[in-house]
Write a structure and sequence with these properties.
about 350 residues; alpha/beta; seven-stranded parallel sheet
Length: about 350
Amino acid sequence: MSTPLLIRVLNGETPARPPVWFMRQAGRYLPEYRALRAQAPDFIAFCLNPEMAAEATLQPMRRFGFDAAIVFADILLIPGALGQKVWFEAGEGPRLGALPDIQAMRDLAPGAGQALSAVGQTLSLVRAALEPERALIGFAGAPWTVATYMLDGEARTIGKGERAQARTYAYAEPDKVAALLDVLVEATAHYLRMQQDAGAHVLKIFESWAEGLPDDLFQTLVLAPHQALIRRARELGVTVPIIGFPRGSAALAEGYARQAGCEGVALDTACPLEVGRRVQAIKPIQGALDPLLLRAGGPMLDRRIDQLKEAWGQGPWIFNLGHGILPDVPIDHVHQALKRIGAE
């Protein structure tokens, strides 16, 4: 049985072309996804319906033949498993209820994998349908990113883009935030172990809100919890490669690559090519095409892909976006990107 190209790169190989997958590759830019989503108005219920979530996961694989599928789920399933109310407002995004008692969440944390076993069922269905040369990725939100939503609740009006309320908590109530992060490390480690057992070849930690943190907070809120999460996941028996994605932290990416304990580091759109080279000398990298450039298409898209190939193509690199694909990206532009990188 052939080893998936993605796994070979995470093992340090440099194949003839990089493996390709896109963040949010299952989503609203696909007409087949929109038709499927219309059958399930409640987004959380959609994520926890194994048959529908598996279909969403497989749709871009059928259309584009990406080298990896990422399970269709959401980073805010964990708060629900810990007893916090989570729902999505149409056109506005997630809303969360009051933060539960820390001890009550601590008691629930070891059962997070079992509570979210529907995601495992999705992974099993997808794994059975995937060709052996294609990898299957499981994922979770990183502790700090998930904590920002849990702490913010409905506080969405001031400083929304920088998670101002959660960052204020980190300064004003550090013990409370540290206790919540500890709970999330434990719950997420069990959740990742369940995903491996259900068939994931690779696991990814999404730190969507690493951006804008001063270096001391980055150490406390991002790096240390990632180290603890990866260590705890390994203690629980996770053996598959792990990709860390501390979005918006290019200035700290080299230190993260050396210290976090993951097998690969995903880079965001704003990461300079030279920084990517330095990180690649430490660990395999993933990234970092601008989703807005994928939306625009044309000669500039080809030019940037060529720049990425020249800068990073001589080492272990997974071609991806620097953030999620946008809902209005033309499908022809995805084909253009795949052809330019040599995957189609």
